[in-house]
Every structure is written in C-alpha cells, then in structure tokens.
Design a protein that fits this description.
Blueprint lengths: L3 E12 L2 E12 L3 E5 L6 H8 L5 E8 L2 E2 L5 H7 L1 E4 L11 H7 L6 H10 L16 H14 L4 E5 L7 H18 L2 E5 L3 H7 L2 E6 L2 E7 H6 L1 H10 L9
Parallel strand pairs: 3-8, 3-9, 6-7, 7-8
Antiparallel strand pairs: 1-2, 1-4, 4-5, 9-10
Helix pairs in contact: 3-5, 4-5
The structure holds adenosine-5'-triphosphate (ATP).
C-alpha cells in the first residue's frame, strides 16, 4: 500500500468558532486521487482551507507527510510540499504565463517547467501572455501548472471546473491524474462535475451539511447512482459505500 501523505483525523473546523465541518476523517496516499463532493455550502472549501493550515481547527488533527499542520505557520506546510489551487485560481493578472511558471519554484527550474508544459500544451503558445488576458480554461491550466512546477507532494484543487466548458475539464482531469500517478502526488479535488471527477479518482467522499454522508472507492460510487444522489441531495446514506 502507498504511503499516506495527507491525513485528517476527527477534523472539526468552521468560521468564527462555529463548526462548518464535523468529524471528518480522510487519508490520501501518494499517487492517489480523492474527490470531495457535495452541494453548495456542504463544507468542501472549508475542509481544503483547514487541510492547508489556512483555518484553525476547532478539534482534530491534520498531518502532511507525518508532520502536523499548524495554522499559525501554514508556510511550513507549503514548504513540505502542499499546494492549494483556490477556486479563484490565485493568479496575478499582470504577470505572464512564463513569469508565473518561473516564480512557482523556489529557484527557476526550466526542465521542470518544460515537463509540466508538455502536460498542458495549450499553455505553450501563450507563454508571453498576461494571466489576466487568458481564457478561463487557460487560467485554470496555468494555476494547476504553476502548482505542479513546485513539485508538490500534495495538490488540492478547489472547483477546477468552475466556469469551464466540460470538454476542457475532460482534458484537464486526466492530466492531473497522470501527474499524480507518475510523480506520487496525493491529489484532493473538489468538483461539481461528479461523473468526470469519479472517473479519474480512486476514492470519493460526499459531504452534506458538514458531515461525511458517503465515502468509498470512486468506481463503486459511480456504479451506485441512487445512493450517490441520495447522499448528495438529501444527505442520506451510510458512511461507507457497500462492497
Ligand atoms: P460551495 O461549493 O458553495 O463553495 P462548500 O461546500 O465549499 O460550498 P463552504 O464554502 O466550505 O462550502 O461553506 C461551508 C459553510 O461555512 C457554509 O454554511 C458557509 O456559509 C460557511 N462559510 C464559508 N465561508 C465562511 C466565512 N468566511 N465566514 C462565515 N461562514 C462561512
């Protein structure tokens, strides 16, 4: 079994001391892809922020490569190799694609930039373009490519497909999975395109009203539409998918 890179145990986290996510356990292994699913307001973004050390935990514990995540020092977790691509993509509009990629590693790493660009060839032709002038799909590719240039051990992507054509999503999700497998990156996605996300994922977790209402192998969840829909919309269902 692969190494558990990202581990959350009994996670309770929220805003202004009010829990938005309760009792969440999660493990993502090296090279594996997990997707967090759930309706608006379920607590998906809150979970990612807590895992990245950007929100204080009310209780529970998060570790990245065995080291505890400390919200007072989130830069340490970033230095250990965790990258979060937020749903607003986190780009700098005046900087070009090439500048983003150059700044994404602690020291310029042209070989790595080339390896990542090979995975996202659409960026090659717009290297000199400012991020603010890219299409939504190109911006999302750049955000993910920049995160990958930093050779992450954990990559978390919040709502990658927001505002993108399904065809773009269809290309990008497999590219992320390929990188995860090839480089042993633990990937955690938050996605609204349930089928596309499950197709590239090993595991999936459905959150509803801040609680895990369903979790299991992505393939199994894909095969049980009824249970998945019930968990997603009604919050109904056992905590683990039936085997
Ligand atoms: P969405 O897809 O709509 O972003 P989500 O599953 O990511 O939904 P969260 O954004 O994590 O859900 O929100 C979980 C709960 O926390 C919601 O009830 C939301 O209103 C609340 N919340 C989120 N951000 C804040 C904030 N900054 N201050 C107070 N409450 C917040």
């Amino acid at each position: 079994m692969s190494e558990a890179v990202l581990v959350a145990e009994g996670l309770v986290v929220g805003h202004n001391g009010i829990p938005a996510v309760q009792d969440l356990d999660l493990t993502v292994a090296a090279g594996a892809v997990t997707t967090l699913l759930g309706p608006n307001g379920a607590g998906k973004t809150t979970t990612l922020l807590a895992l990245a050390g950007l929100l204080p935990l009310i209780s529970g514990r998060v570790t990245v490569l065995g080291a505890p995540v400390d919200h007072r020092r989130p830069h340490r977790t970033a230095r250990r190799g965790l990258r979060l691509v937020p749903d607003d993509r986190g780009l700098f509009a005046p900087l070009t694609v090439a500048e983003h990629l150059r700044l994404a590693a602690p020291t310029p790493d042209p070989a790595r930039e080339k390896a990542v660009l090979d995975r996202f060839p659409a960026l090659e032709g717009v290297r000199g373009r400012r991020a603010g002038l890219l299409s939504g799909g190109e911006q999302q590719m750049l955000a993910i490519a920049a995160a990958l240039v930093g050779r992450p051990k954990v990559l978390m992507v919040d709502e990658m497909s927001l505002g993108l054509a399904p065809m773009v999503v269809q290309d990008m999700l497999p590219a992320i999975r390929t990188m995860a497998r090839a480089e042993g990156i633990a990937v955690l996605l938050v996605e609204q395109h349930v089928d596309l996300a499950l197709a590239v994922s090993d595991h999936a977790i459905v959150l509803n009203h801040g609680r895990v209402v369903l979790s299991g192998e992505a393939e199994r969840l894909r095969g049980d539409r009824e249970q998945l829909t019930a968990a997603y919309f009604d919050g109904a269902g056992p905590r683990s998918a039936p085997s």
